[in-house]
Amino acid sequence: QVQLVESGGGSVQVGGSLRLSCVASGIIFSQYAMNWYRQAPGKQRELVAAITNAGSTAYADSVKGRLTISRDNAKSTVSLQMNSLKPEDTAVYYCNAFSSIIIAGSRNNYWGQGTQVTVSS
Predict the structure, then answer these.
(1) Using alpha carbons only, how large is the chain's radius of gyration in Å?
(2) Three-state DSSP class for 28?
(3) Dist. CA 50–CA 59, nearest whole Å
(4) To the nearest 5 percent, what fractions of the chain are helix, strand and coil?
(5) Which residues pair with 5 in a beta bridge?
């Protein structure tokens, strides 16, 4: 059974920091690209940060320079360090695992349950 369990969400003031973590089980973690998405009320889910299984990273323009994604393959964990938080960062943040391997024409794609981040002024 595949599980992605996020933690670290909460409420902070503008300019504050949070560190989100996602622990994966039931997958060969090193074979997966790991992503953080977020969804604010009334908005579509958006990709904010990604890290390939080789360690390359990419960020949405809105979070560049403030959010940092990292992974620890030995612990099957992906983290998102969030600094200089803004009210517009308020959302539910979701961990996503996307397989680098194609099986029967498709890639496995898994989601965590989400963790709430609230930034207040």
Answers:
(1) 14
(2) coil
(3) 6
(4) 10, 55, 35
(5) 23
pLDDT over threshold 90, residue 19: yes
Residue range 42-64, pLDDT digits in tens: 999 999 999 999 999 999 999 99
* Long-range CB contacts for residues 29-33, cutoff 8 Å, separation at least 24: 29/73, 29/76, 29/97, 30/73, 31/99, 31/100, 31/101, 32/97, 32/98, 32/99, 32/100, 32/108, 33/97, 33/98, 33/99, 33/100
Do residues 20 and 91 lie in contact, with contact meaning Cβ atoms separated by under 8 Å?
no
CA proximity to 71, closest of 100, 44, 106, 45: 100
Per-residue pLDDT reduced to its tens digit, 91-104: 999 999 999 888 88
Q: Which residue has the tokens 């990419």?
A: 58
- Scored b (16 or more CB within 10 A) or e, 54-92 reads eeeeebeeebeeebbbebeeeebbbbbbbeebeeebbbb
* Cβ(80)–Cβ(20) below 8 Å: yes
